[in-house]
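Example 9 (inverse folding). The structure is encoded as follows.
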């Protein structure tokens, strides 16, 4: 696995997102941190997968509240969970993540 780089407010970090752990290192430091994905990531609907993105890592470094929460204005739902867009999965065979609003998911399933 190779590192990816991330710059947060002028400070360089590098990281590897593993299946269970995020490995995070500030450039120049000898030590690195191992952070369980489930502590910071967004749980994927119907799985034990916790999704960690560069945005999540950035929030972690900044000390922002995690997991990130998403709000669906149309259905007034707030959640930290993600789901695969059922329409994209079924029609295009692509896995696009969306916030897990049950109503939105249901509407997309009806479009298939
Ligand atoms: Zn919705």
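The amino acid assigned to each position is listed next.
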């Amino acid at each position: 696995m190779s590192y990816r780089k991330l710059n947060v407010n002028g400070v360089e970090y590098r990281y590897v997102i593993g299946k269970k752990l995020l490995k995070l290192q500030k450039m120049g430091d000898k030590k690195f941190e191992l952070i369980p994905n489930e502590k910071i990531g967004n749980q994927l609907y119907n799985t034990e997968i916790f999704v960690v993105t560069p945005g999540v890592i950035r929030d972690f470094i900044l000390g922002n509240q995690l997991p990130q929460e998403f709000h669906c204005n149309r259905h007034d739902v707030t959640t930290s969970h993600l789901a695969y867009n059922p329409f994209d999965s079924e029609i295009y065979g692509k896995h696009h993540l969306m916030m897990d609003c049950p109503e939105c998911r249901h509407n997309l399933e009806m479009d298939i």
